[in-house]
Write a structure and sequence with these properties.
The complex is a heterodimer of chains A (about 130) and B (about 800). Chain A is of the alpha+beta class and about 130 residues long. Chain A has two helices and eight strands. Classes of the chains: A alpha+beta (about 130), B alpha+beta (about 800). Chains A and B meet through helix 1, strand 1, strand 3, strand 7 and strand 8 of A and helix 3, strand 1, helix 12, strand 3 and helix 13 of B.
Chain lengths: ~130, ~800
């Protein structure tokens, strides 16, 4: 395997460039999309991530059936009922934003995973009275 | 002490002085580092400034340490008048967590990063010989920027109440998830690793500026190996922490924060291998200068990405967003480091090229080409992960809807590289720098290949005996589709065994040399063991989910009968409380008492929260991982006000409030008010009467049983309209449980341990490279180390 000096790095570079090109294509084409309910309906994707504001008064927990229902308002302002099955996420009642991962089934958005974002209770809640930063 | 209307004492004078001292230390550090950067940048024009520049660097480092000491003293003494401390801890927190809380938020973690960077700077600078002025100048510029960020986003902000500094009695508290011994040791370790990256970057810049990219190899190599060792240890600690405490059943999720640590680590491994080529053959001058800078630049990029808000809506993690000005400074540091390095590289490219020696011809398969291929594969893995992490940013810049790369896709894409990496690890150590004939190579590899086939056969035999393997498992690959899991993992396992055995064989071949030189081989064995563990553990993992109430039992798909026995402590608020489950397998001997952790606590709002952590039964062949989630107590998430005659429905339970009852005289303690309700559930219609009793301290609710599964409580009453506050609860809390069967996870930890040992051994072996180089003139041809001359395949 005695390769001329000039050709060795060239071949290595070309192979590496093709490899990295394939990696980039794979990551860009097969990564998980974020979108709206309209995107989920249009594409039929069953693993779309829809981020939105959860309506706290809409949370309907049915632990005996291991189902949680709630309504989610996406970035377009569309409000859609979501059905989630699985281990209930902690602090759902405290949640402000939710990412529901799933797709439409018979007109309902069914999520099999859920990411819950809560306001950080560890930040700035204990500011004493009318405080002023020095 | 004076008391104000809040009844809080004035903050002690020493604490105010400590905070002020902390701020002044930070500002002094900024000034000292700026002056040091200027003084050390002018050694040719003003040589007399070099020494003061070095002193200024040390003064700056001492100031950063002083600021850290001030913050530590404020934390240890619970000085809640400071915003950062009040937001981070609560009164009475154990000392070790008060110390750990220093780096629990952004400001403190930046201060820790600055401190560890300074420690490495002070240690490395005197050993940089002819590179010292340029090295110190660049280093001072960087740590000075970190200090500037800390000046802007300071942890020493004081809250004033009516113009006075008062000492509140309580803080918001350290989240219970962080009250774990790992938080005490993991962040300092990983930040020490991050700090060490600066040495490689500054040495690479200095090598270009000085015009000698040859001698720096000997000086930077021990630091690269130390960095590899410490960062690797930190990564393993993080993985173990996640596995032991977080309860999601994994140790690595390719999260952006994890990737921000992984990419610099693998690029440092790339650099360490590149330095071997330069040490042995004196080539790779330009490549190593670039590789030396990449770990640091990639870390800055990752830090910026995770702090800039790009991931704010795309991840479950609440990435702390930086103060706008501090973020601009970080962006400036990253831009200056990247663009400045690129500009210097362009300027010095011709000079670097001139330092590349002509390549000596090699016969047959040779070490240099093999090692080059290894470096390309390692670097590609690092860049691939960096690209995957950047996908949300790329999509944002393309003005497309955001996308995110999740864990399975990382496995699928990086799976392309593993066969190449393992094969190179197995074969390349046998190749000589001058070339090795294939006909002479094969007999040396034959034993390893044969044993690897045998090992794979045994592994497949045992994997197929697993009761949980259906034989229908598939693994998906982009562009390829799905392939059966078992053959694919068998192929990779063969390569893992080949890499392990090949390196063992190579150690035996070199047994007459220094055993310390085995570090590289041991590290390869560790990597191969780790990957074998990952493959089997993740590839054949089984998971199931079920729900259980205290006293109940359930049969699981894995063949266990799981019974919820009891709690280990009388109070659910006891931090040492565990829930106890007995898991009985089909075989009577196969019984496990699982005790996952569970306790309740009240947050700063007074709400009840739950802390859980998993139970793991470690066997040599597998782990049984039992993860408990917080209990489901309430059918109705809140108490609901209902007027007489009206109904409310939630969670398939409808309650109609019929009328109010009273037992006793109004206004007297002990009198009970009740609400007669009709409850409609999927199993039937029931009548119940929850009550509230007038007690000395207020109303005392008494629950009423609806049926076997449900109870109802009355939590308030409105005398005006006779409405009542009602809430439906489960008679017994429902606990969601996830059970994992994880085969051969022990190999993951064993491999990580072997890897850490191997790299540490290499760093120790190369410690002599720390000797200062005092020669004024660059040496065009450094004397090779004796082992490089003797051993055809120098180790890491």
């Amino acid at each position: 395997m005695s390769i001329p000096i000039a050709r060795g790095p060239l071949i290595t570079g070309v192979v590496a460039a093709i490899g990295m090109g394939a990696v980039m294509m794979a990551f860009l084409n097969y990564s998980s999309p974020y979108g709206t309910f309209a995107d989920a309906r249009r594409t039929g994707n069953q693993a779309i991530h829809v981020a939105g504001d959860i309506r706290k008064d809409s949370i309907d927990n049915e632990p005996l059936q291991h189902i949680i229902r709630f309504t989610l308002k996406d970035q377009n302002g569309e409000v859609v009922p979501v059905t989630y099955t699985g281990v209930p996420p902690s602090d759902l009642s405290q949640a402000t934003r939710v990412v529901a991962i799933g797709g439409f089934q018979n007109g309902t958005f069914v999520a099999d995973r859920m990411l819950v974002k809560c306001p950080s209770k560890y930040q700035g809640e204990s500011d004493p009275g009318a405080s002023a930063k020095s | 002490m004076e008391l104000n209307d809040l009844h809080w004492p004035l903050a002690p004078q020493w604490a105010l002085l400590a905070g002020q001292a902390g701020r002044w230390f930070i500002l002094s550090a900024v000034v000292a580092f700026a002056l040091s950067a200027i003084a050390c940048a002018l050694p040719k024009r003003a040589p007399a400034l070099a020494r003061p520049g070095q002193w200024l660097f040390t003064i700056g480092a001492v100031c950063v340490a002083g600021a850290f000491g001030c913050l530590a003293s404020l934390f240890i003494n619970q000085q809640f008048e400071y915003d950062y401390i009040r937001d981070s801890i609560q009164a009475g927190l154990e000392l070790r967590y008060r110390v750990a809380a220093i780096w629990s938020h952004q400001e403190g973690s930046f201060l820790l990063w600055a401190l560890t960077s300074c420690v490495f700077g002070v240690l490395a600078a005197p050993r940089m010989g002819i590179y010292r002025p340029a090295f110190t100048s660049v280093y001072a510029l960087f740590v000075g920027s970190l200090a500037a960020i800390l000046a802007k986003e300071t942890p020493f902000n004081l809250s004033l109440v009516h113009g006075q500094a008062l000492l509140p009695p309580e803080g918001a508290g350290l989240t219970p998830a962080l009250q774990n011994y790992w938080v005490v040791i993991h962040p300092p370790t990983i930040f020490t690793g991050f700090g060490s990256l600066t040495v490689m970057f500054c040495a690479a810049v200095a090598a270009m500026v000085v015009g000698n990219s040859t001698d720096w190899v000997r000086m930077v190599r021990p630091w690269a190996l130390a960095s590899l060792s410490i960062l690797g240890l930190g990564l393993c600690m993080g993985g173990f922490w996640a596995y032991e405490t977080l309860g999601w059943g994994g140790f690595w999720g390719w999260d952006p924060v994890e990737n921000t640590s992984f990419v610099p680590w693998i690029l440092t491994a790339t650099f360490a291998h590149g330095l071997m080529i330069q040490a042995a053959k004196r080539g790779w001058v330009r490549a190593n200068v670039i590789l030396g800078a990449l770990p640091f630049i990639s870390f800055l990029f990752g830090t910026y990405l995770t702090r800039s808000g790009v991931y704010a809506d795309l991840s479950v993690h609440s990435f702390a967003q930086m103060n706008g000005d501090a973020l601009k400074i970080l962006l400036g540091v990253m831009s200056v480091a990247t663009l400045g390095f690129a500009a210097l590289l362009t300027r010095h490219w011709a000079g670097l090229r001139a330092q590349e020696p002509p390549r000596a011809p090699a016969e047959g398969l040779n070490r240099r080409d093999g090692q080059t291929a290894g470096v390309v594969v390692l670097c590609s893995i690092g860049l691939a992960v960096a690209f995957g992490t950047s996908v949300p940013l790329i999509e944002m810049l393309r003005r497309l809807p955001p996308k995110i790369v999740e864990e399975p896709l990382y496995h699928q894409v990086l799976g392309w590289f593993f066969p190449m990496l393992l094969l190179l690890m197995a074969v390349v150590p046998f190749l000589g720098w001058g070339g090795t004939q294939a006909s002479k190579l094969w007999p040396r590899l034959a034993m390893s290949v044969s044993l690897a086939f045998m090992g794979t056969g045994f592994a497949v035999f045992f994997i197929r005996r697993s009761p949980f393997l259906t034989g229908q498992e598939t693994v998906a690959f982009p562009f390829v589709g799905k392939i059966p899991t078992l053959p694919w993992i068998a192929f990779l396992l063969f390569l893992c065994f080949f890499a392990m055995l090949g390196n063992v064989a190579r150690m035996f071949e070199l047994k007459k040399g220094s055993k310390l030189g085995w570090g590289g081989f041991i590290a390869h064995i560790g990597i191969a063991t780790f990957m074998a563990g990952m493959l089997i553990s993740r590839g054949f993992e089984k998971k199931e989910q079920f729900f259980l109430q205290p006293g109940e039992s359930v049969s699981t798909q894995m063949g266990y009968t799981v019974e919820f026995k009891d709690f280990t402590k009388p109070s659910i608020y006891d931090r040492d409380n565990h829930a106890e489950f007995v898991m009985q397998g089909a075989d009577p001997v196969n019984q496990i008492t699982a005790q996952p952790g569970l306790y309740a606590y009240r947050d700063s709002d007074g709400d009840t929260k739950w802390m859980t952590w998993p139970f793991i039964k470690h066997y040599v062949s597998h782990d049984v991982y039992f993860s408990l989630s917080q209990p489901q107590l309430d059918v109705w998430k809140d108490a609901v006000s209902i007027l007489p005659g009206k109904s409310y429905s939630e969670g398939q339970v409808q309650v109609q409030y019929l009328h109010m009852t009273m037992h006793g005289a109004p206004g007297q303690a002990g009198t009970r008010f009740g609400a007669v309700v009709r409850v409609t559930t999927p199993t039937g219609v029931y009548q119940a009467e929850p009550t509230v009793e007038i007690g000395q301290g207020g109303l005392i609710p008494h629950v009423a049983v609806i049926n076997r599964d449900l109870v109802i409580s009355m939590q308030g009453i409105d005398a005006n309209d006779q409405s009542v506050l009602l809430q439906v609860h489960f008679a017994k809390p429902i606990y969601p449980i996830e059970l994992f069967y994880k085969p051969m996870t022990s190999l993951v930890w064993l491999g990580a341990g072997i890897l850490a040992l191997g790299v540490a051994l290499s760093a120790f072996y190369r410690r002599n490279g720390l000797e200062p180089q005092t020669a004024a003139q660059p040496s065009p041809k450094p004397a090779p180390r004796s082992d490089d001359a003797i051993v055809p395949a120098p180790q890491m």
